[in-house]
Amino acid sequence: MVRAKFVAVLALIVSCSFSLAQNEAKPKFVPGPFECFNINGKAKGRPHCLVCKFALNPVVLIFTKEPAAGKDGPLNDLLEQLDKLAALPDFAERDLSIGVVFLSPDAKDSTNNAEEEKSEELLKEAINREMLRKRLEERAKPFKKENDADRVIVAYYPLEGPKKYNIDPKMEQTI
Q: In principle, which of 1, 24, 32, 173 could form an S-S bond with 64, CB 3.0–4.6 Å?
């Protein structure tokens, strides 16, 4: 039964990956590290590289836009299933890590928007970023484990995504 669930979720991930691929249906290697602001986990409340954190362990990394209100059911279901999958004994010797990076225009700050000089705009960015952090903290609550050993790490990054990753801005999710 456990293996059947594992295979079903793995098939879902692979099919999503292939359906979301831009023009080619072959696996891609991680192009490099990037720092995103972590909402939960051991790096909670600060920028940290998920690629560095996950290292060579099996990983599912999802880049997604924040779903509209009431339209987040499929994403929540996927994250819940991945969290359950990561808890299976099959991964006792090697951790399965899951990272979901929310790409948002509200993630702008002085480190990624250095050309902004107007104090009003900087204040607006800070308020928007704080609201984003609070929304994502609520989204991360179902994945809270003891000792900040969360299996699903929730983070955010500016809307365009890490440069080397070539994330299509028209796509809602990239896995």
A: 173
Give me the residues paired with residue 152 across strands: 98
Tokens of 14: 């692979």
What angle (nearest 5°) sits at the alpha carbon of residue 89, between those of residues 79 and 142?
Answer: 30
Which one, of 104, 112, 111, 100, lies nearest residue 128 by Cα?
A: 104
Angle between helices 73-86 and 2-20 (to 10 degrees): 130
- Both tokens of residue 42? 């051991």
What's the pTM value of the predicted model, to 2 decimals?
A: 0.77
- Residue 100 DSSP SS3: strand
Looking up tokens 């990272």 gives 99
Q: What is the pLDDT of residues 58-106, one digit of tens each?
A: 888 999 998 887 888 898 899 888 888 888 887 766 678 889 999 998 8
The position carrying tokens 């250095």 is: 114
Check residue 144 and give its pLDDT: 76
Q: Phi and psi at residue 52, in whole multiples of 5°?
A: -70, -40
Write out the two tokens for 101.
């990076």
Which residues is 59 bridged to in the sheet?
A: 97
**Structure confidence at residue 69 (pLDDT):** 78
Which DSSP state fits 66?
P
CA distance 91 to 83: 12
